[in-house]
Amino acid sequence: MKIKIVTLVLALTSVSCANTKNEIKKVQKVFARATQFHKNDPGCDPWTKRGTTCTQIRLSDSCDNTIGMVAIDPKIIPFGSLIYSPENERFYLACNIGGAVSSRVAAKKLADKKDLSDKFREALVLDFYAKKEIIDNHFGDFFVILHEGEDFRFDLSKSEQEIRLKPEFWIDRIHKILKESSTKKDTLTAILCRLQEM
């Protein structure tokens, strides 16, 4: 009897760990250095100057009621993910990349300049398409709803990519996550409410 009970406990623990890992893959909290880029900036790359991201979505200025665009390190955050900034309560689609983003050089330089700890030196870099910095203190926490399914950059059509710039797509996605997940419900509910206001 004891052997059976131990086996059952181990099995339930394995299922619980698997579910937790699955939930973590859907929503993540990241600490990042926020920078900005714009097609009107001097010295911007040719793709940006033409108003196009590396995923072929046309760059467009965002406002409070639209989903903006952000360059990410795709090894950490998949293309097609939604990034939420609690500081300005705005959303951004991960649809571009840059060498300075992957190298995290902006985080390291600013941390060294201000003599900040390794937490800041090792922060991710998120490069937002905007005419000015999106957060005043440069470093902050961001929530990421990770892209799932086919490869966003190479397998999805332009229209399938662009639908992710619509709040309705993410409202539906978050409803599904809330039904499946037992963690981060407060955060997801707050994000959902903000999306429904758009």
List the helices and strands and how they pair.
Layout: H1 2-26, E1 27-37, H2 46-49, E2 68-71, E3 82-85, E4 90-96, H3 99-103, H4 105-113, H5 118-121, E5 124-129, E6 139-145, H6 158-162, H7 167-180, H8 185-197
Parallel strand pairs: 1-5, 2-4
Antiparallel strand pairs: 1-6, 2-5, 3-4, 3-6
Main attributes of the structure:
alpha/beta, six-stranded mixed barrel, globular, disordered N terminus
Q: Quick summary of this structure?
A:
The chain is an alpha/beta fold and 198 residues long.
* Distance linking N and C termini: 57 Å
Percent helix, as a range, is: 25-40%
Taking pLDDT < 50 over at least 5 consecutive residues as the criterion, the unreliable ranges are 1-23
Instruction: Write down the overall geometry.
Output: globular
The number of helices is: 8
